[in-house]
Amino acid sequence: MQVNAEYAQTEASRADNVVQDEIDKFEQMKLTDIKRYLQDFTLINLAFHARAMEMYTNAHQQLLNIDIAHDLEV
Length: 74
Prior knowledge:
Layout: H1 2-64, H2 68-73
């Protein structure tokens, strides 16, 4: 009976270690995925806003080039 109890305790301890290792692997994968998704999200937004800034700069330059007096004469 004592041998069976010790064996059961050893198996339970081993199973607990296996489960804990799996949980750790899952947490690491989850954090890695979240990090990658957030990096992709921020990179996409940076690219979008950089392009928007270029367009607004171009629009501003075009507005500065408007010659109201010349347009009124035409």
